[in-house]
Amino acid sequence: MKEERHIHFLDREEVKLLLNSITDLKHKCIVLIMLDAGLRVSEAISLRFGNFEFQQKIIKVKSLKKRKGKDFGNRIIPISPRLFSCLVEYSKLFDTPDNLTYLFPSPLYPNHHITRNAVWVYLKRLNIKSLNIQELHPHTLRHSFATGLVATGADLHKIADLLGHQNIDTSRIYTHIPQEQLAKSIYAASTRNGYSRSFFNFFNFFQKPAPAIYVPNQTHQILVGRAAELQTISTHLAKGTNVILFGAYGTGKRLILESVLTDKKILTFDDMASVKKSLIYLLLYLYKNEKLQIATLMFKEFDPAKVETHLSRQSIGYLCGEIKKLVEPKEYILKIKQFDDITKSSMKVIDQLKETFVILTCATEISITKAAFFGNFEKIELKNLNRLHTFEMIHKSSAGMEIEDYEVYKNHIWLQSDGNPRVIRDMVERYRAEPRLANETVRSVTHSGALKEWDCTYFLVLIIASLAIMRYMTTELDNPALRTIGGMAMILLLLTRSFAAKTKRSFI
Known about the structure:
Elements: H1 12-21, H2 25-37, H3 41-45, E1 52-53, E2 58-62, E3 66-67, E4 70-71, E5 74-78, H4 81-91, H5 116-131, H6 138-151, H7 156-163, H8 168-171, H9 179-183, H10 198-203, E6 212-213, H11 227-239, E7 242-247, H12 253-259, E8 265-269, H13 275-290, H14 292-299, H15 304-312, H16 316-326, E9 332-336, H17 344-353, E10 358-363, H18 368-371, E11 377-382, H19 387-397, E12 401-402, H20 406-417, H21 421-432, H22 439-444, H23 457-469, H24 474-477, H25 480-503
Parallel strand pairs: 7-10, 7-11, 8-9, 9-10
Antiparallel strand pairs: 1-2, 2-5, 3-4, 6-12
Helix pairs in contact: 2-4, 2-6, 13-14, 13-15, 13-16, 19-20, 19-21, 20-21, 23-25
């Protein structure tokens, strides 16, 4: 068996300690290029100014690794805000750098760059002198970059592209690191702030440059401000406690369900409208994968098509019983993606299974009629994002967009969305259709999806009751018209109770 490779990487505190210990700009740039861009030491030391596109805030790296005559070509890596700031200051040490000028020229040999050994020696001396970090070397910084990507949910193919791995299996080594260790490796700290314009001015690209928002390493679905909820969910699932998320439309309930980290195996019910079919597919999955040995013993020659035909003839009660026989209590998490429109028959099925599985589900609201069902569930309410997290999501969602005034842009979305993630995503997608966002365009886009709804039932009843009182005021005011109006209002008032009973929805 192949021995598992042990990976050393830095956690947040170690990164902070390392960067605070570096006083030389050149050394800090070298470290950040490996730490925030994931370059190999050989790639970092051979960088030229022509490798940078400062307007787009990206580095184009030509891989120095060649195998069997193959050229790995260029890869494009975003520049983090703190690396960008460091490059701004460091570039001031050069008089007039051109595209061929080395970023880290050798102090001994003209037209050469520094050596790999120089970087290794510097990190070793720095570590011995003030840090005492285990295994601090250039590849530790590259590992820290990769584990940070994995911890934030980046796609494995994207990670492989950024690291310059020809084979995606090389990148898979980072996915085997325990999640509690990965959580410590999230070190990127400066993506919330706007980018500095001084680097543009230094190279004189524009007199009045428009800031290009470019955010690295994001998946299509962005999850912001939900760390506490995710931790709470994971803790309860580990204990075997059923969990339901509830909150207004657009708060990201389903995305959180997909982002939950757990050591337990997860089975998913996608279609609760046809619960029998879901039970059959669940059984077939167990037979074919997790419980194949049991299926072979039960059916001798296990034929999935024949077994499916056999199961389709059975009752729902029989299917539930077979599932209970196959799995140990709380062995699996059963994820139900949407509980809002679940039928009474489906609820009965889940009720039979909720002591066998750990249930994880979500709903817009928990109605009183279903409250008893969720008696042994941990209820976690999702609310809209606060201002800080809203701005973080806006920034991460706006990758690659050119915006005239970023402050106007993000504040307008905040006011329109009230922190609702779905509305934020809708507005950013609408803005993305524009080649360049002027302030007039920003202000012209509005969204009512996050506006709070008001229940006017009580006000309506109050008005009708006031009109009904007029019937009893006719004697004093001697106005027959009021008697007619009051009588009609009284009839409406009497009917209101019956009408409200059919339309009212109560929630806890």
